[in-house]
């Protein structure tokens, strides 16, 4: 009887191991890499504590200044000049309208100082070569008032960034 009980336990353990390690079938609608949206729908946690990589200014109708931040993986890749960027790289661009600083300009004696005004948007690039394979390994995100942009708004991101293949689809340059 002891041998029979041992045999039953051994068979159950083997069945459990087979179930644990057997590949699971994938379906087209389960969020696999092939069906993953090429955009980011949630803001990464802690992004405001990331390191500064560079600043950005866009003139014309956009009229914004921005801080470009990166998580540790992004920061180290920028600093070391590592291309392509490794998976796990996340870049955040915090954009603001820029406005003249009356206080600073009084000190300078002329209009020359500008500071961040009202926030306009936050954009993210997330490197995951499997999840975002269809868009060069990058997921793109755009948030206004904490809400993600819809899919139609996000469609031009990849074609625009694709023009910068030589820098792994990234416009930003590290400011040493």
Protein topology:
Elements: H1 2-21, E1 51-58, E2 64-70, H2 72-80, E3 90-100, H3 102-108, E4 114-127, E5 138-144, E6 147-148, H4 151-154, H5 157-161
Antiparallel strand pairs: 1-2, 2-3, 3-4, 4-5, 5-6
Walk me through the structure.
- The protein has 176 residues and is an alpha+beta fold.
- It has a domain at 47-167: Cytochrome P460 (Chalcone isomerase), CATH 3.50.70.
- Helix content is 26%, strand content 28%.
- Strands 1-2-3-4-5-6 form a six-stranded antiparallel β-sheet.
- The longest helix has 20 residues, at 2-21.
- It is globular, with a radius of gyration of 24 Å.
- Mean pLDDT is 84; it is low at 3-35.
């Amino acid at each position: 009887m002891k041998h029979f009980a041992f045999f039953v336990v051994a068979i159950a353990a083997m069945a459990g191991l087979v179930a644990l390690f057997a590949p699971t079938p994938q379906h087209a609608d389960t969020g696999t890499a092939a069906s993953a949206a090429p955009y980011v729908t949630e803001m990464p946690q802690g992004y405001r504590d990331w390191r500064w990589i560079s600043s950005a200014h866009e003139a014309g109708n956009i009229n914004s200044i921005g801080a470009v931040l990166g998580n540790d993986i992004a920061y180290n890749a920028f600093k070391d000049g590592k291309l392509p960027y490794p998976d796990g790289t996340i870049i955040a661009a915090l954009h603001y309208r820029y406005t003249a600083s009356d206080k600073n300009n009084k000190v300078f004696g002329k209009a020359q100082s500008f500071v961040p005004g009202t926030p306009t948007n936050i954009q993210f690039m997330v490197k995951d070569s499997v999840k975002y394979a269809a868009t060069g390994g990058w997921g793109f995100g755009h948030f206004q008032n904490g809400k993600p942009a819809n899919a139609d708004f996000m469609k031009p991101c990849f074609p625009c960034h694709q023009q910068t293949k030589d820098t792994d689809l990234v416009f930003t340059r590290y400011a040493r």
